[in-house]
């Protein structure tokens, strides 16, 4: 029997090719749509001088190729305007603090280093934009590779892992991963953090999760994976001393992941509350917990529980309905396949699945319960096979006792042991819980149309689609085909609308 599955080098190259091809397709579509139609709103080109300081020295002379610079700057639309403005002038306005610093800081550093020679040629603002395009597209390719690696470990199937990676490369929010948005950096550091966490490199995983929280606020939720793991370690070990130790460790891990976001909030508090020269405090400065991000989302964008439930927003609910439906369907399907696992949060796992879960939770020998003694490189299939004979020995007794059962067996007792991999696996559970929380937030609290890109980095969506594609059921395969049509339609429509400053998500 082979060892634990590892990402195949040749397949990794195929993932890179698909990811690069998808970015080239988006670039081609963007250029095509811009040449065929006029932008709905041209206000994005307005770029007044910085308030507190000026980078005019970078643009002291007219660029050598103004038309090229102008063409690049036309791609600065929607939230891209904020990211580029912050990179150029810093955080001037209160509402700018809704955009976390990782992307604008990266744009500034790249434009002052690697891309600095381009400033005289195309101008500083165009250089900022170009550095962002290059950064995000490279980050997307790396994110696809990490997603493939995570999927290999979770699904225990290289072919399925390749399939889900291709799906991610052409996801319905693809245009945002090639634009001046933070989605690519968030996906890169989220998938990278998951890979290193599963591999047992906790320090690297914490660092990458912290960076994901510096790109998007929902990156802080990645601390939940460590919390979930700590709960299961404590449950299986069943020792008070170990529980105290695990609680302290996971608290430190969660604080490290949330630290960049917390420091950024304090930076805003210091600027507007502690270092306020006007003498008039902003309302949020007087809150018991003065978190600027929450105030901005509520005050400037109207984000709040059920605040978006208005008749005029019905088109936006329709726009978000496909991705939300996929999220709900994947959760429902997992609940049907593994009800005992889902509704017990994994604490009712079968004995052999505790061993399987130990692979995901990276339990060293000293952390395993007394009856779990897996070699470090044990393959999930070996665990399954090792328990297969015991399963058969118990089978006859279960048939004899079946008449005394009080009700039908849970579905996860009926699923054959060797089928508990892929989308059936207990290893999918924490991802399902994470996605379920994000989907609820997107539907009830956020601007619902943002759900398309908000959930685009949720692995269970792609694992579920792969499950449908691989199914022998004709109905499932038809649904998989329709999902592919939806992906293709949103890639085409999204690149058209977004690049020409029309509302999309």
Mean pLDDT score: 84
The largest β sheet comes out as: none
Q: Give the DSSP E fraction (strand runs of 2 or more residues).
A: under 5%
Structural class of the secondary structure composition?
Answer: mainly alpha
- Oligomeric state: single chain
Question: Which value, in Å, is the CA radius of gyration?
Answer: 25 Å
Membrane topology: Multi-pass membrane protein
EC number: 2.4.1.-
Pathway: Glycolipid biosynthesis; glycosylphosphatidylinositol-anchor biosynthesis
Function: Mannosyltransferase involved in glycosylphosphatidylinositol-anchor biosynthesis.
Based on the model shown, name its key terms.
single chain, 505 residues, mainly alpha, 23 helices, 63% helix, 0% strand
Fold and architecture overview:
- It is a multi-pass membrane protein.
- It is found in: Endoplasmic reticulum membrane.
- InterPro entries: PIG-V/Gpi18.
- Its EC number is 2.4.1.-.
- This protein is mainly alpha-helical and 505 residues long.
- Helix content is 63%, strand content 0%.
- It has 23 helices and no strands.
- The protein has helices at residues 9-36, 66-73, 80-89, 102-112, 119-122, 124-155, 158-169, 174-177, 183-198, 202-215, 223-237, 240-274, 292-299, 314-337, 339-343, 351-360, 380-386, 388-401, 411-414, 429-444, 451-454, 459-470, 474-499.
- Helix 1 crosses helix 23, helix 6 packs parallel to helix 9 (183-198) and helix 14 crosses helix 22 (459-470).
- The longest helix has 35 residues, at 240-274.
- It starts with 8 loop residues before the first helix and ends in a 6-residue tail after the last helix.
């Amino acid at each position: 029997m082979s060892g634990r599955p590892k990402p195949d080098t040749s397949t990794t190259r195929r993932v890179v090719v698909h990811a690069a091809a998808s970015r080239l397709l988006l670039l081609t579509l963007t250029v095509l749509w811009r040449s065929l139609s006029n932008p709905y709103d041209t206000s994005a080109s307005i770029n007044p001088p910085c308030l507190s300081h000026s980078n005019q020295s970078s643009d002291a002379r007219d660029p050598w190729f103004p038309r090229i610079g102008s063409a690049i700057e036309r791609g600065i639309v929607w939230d891209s305007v904020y990211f580029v403005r912050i990179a150029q002038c810093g955080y001037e306005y209160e509402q700018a603090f809704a955009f976390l610093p990782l992307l604008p800081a990266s744009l500034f550093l790249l434009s002052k280093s690697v891309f600095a020679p381009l400033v005289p040629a195309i101008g500083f603002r165009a250089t900022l934009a170009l550095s962002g395009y290059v950064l995000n597209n490279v980050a997307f390719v790396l994110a696809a590779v990490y997603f493939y690696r995570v999927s290999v470990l979770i699904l225990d199937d290289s072919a399925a892992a390749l399939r889900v990676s291709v799906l991610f490369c052409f996801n319905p929010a693809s245009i945002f991963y090639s634009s001046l948005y933070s989605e690519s950096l968030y996906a890169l550091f989220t998938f990278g953090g998951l890979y290193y966490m599963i591999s047992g490199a906790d320090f690297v995983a914490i660092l990458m999760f912290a960076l994901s929280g510096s790109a998007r606020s929902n990156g802080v939720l990645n601390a939940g994976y460590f919390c979930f793991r700590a709960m299961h370690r404590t449950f299986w070990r069943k020792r008070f001393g170990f529980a105290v130790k695990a609680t302290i460790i996971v608290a430190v891990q969660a604080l490290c992941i949330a630290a960049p976001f917390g420091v950024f909030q304090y930076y805003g508090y210091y600027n507007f509350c502690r270092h306020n020269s006007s003498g008039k405090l902003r309302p949020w400065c007087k809150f018991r917990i003065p978190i600027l991000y929450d105030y901005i989302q509520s005050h400037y964008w109207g984000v709040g529980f059920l605040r978006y439930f208005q008749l005029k927003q019905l088109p936006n609910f329709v726009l978000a309905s496909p991705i939300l439906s996929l999220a709900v369907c994947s959760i429902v399907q997992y609940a049907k396949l593994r009800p005992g696992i889902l509704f017990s949060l994994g604490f009712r796992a079968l004995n052999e699945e505790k061993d399987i879960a130990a692979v995901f939770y990276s339990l060293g020998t000293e952390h395993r319960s007394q009856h779990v003694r897996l070699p470090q490189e044990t393959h999930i299939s070996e665990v399954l096979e090792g328990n297969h004979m015991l399963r058969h020995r118990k089978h006859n007794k279960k048939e004899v006792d079946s008449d005394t059962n009080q009700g039908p067996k849970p579905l996860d007792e009926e699923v054959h042991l060797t089928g508990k991999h892929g989308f059936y696996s207990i290893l999918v559970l924490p991802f399902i819980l994470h996605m379920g929380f994000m989907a609820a937030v997107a539907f009830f609290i956020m601007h619902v149309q943002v759900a398309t890109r908000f959930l685009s980095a949720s692995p269970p969506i792609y694992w579920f689609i792969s499950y449908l594609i691989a199914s022998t059921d004709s109905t499932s395969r038809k649904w998989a085909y329709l999902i592919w049509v939806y992906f293709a339609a949103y890639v085409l429509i999204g690149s058209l609308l977004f690049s020409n400053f029309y509302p999309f998500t």
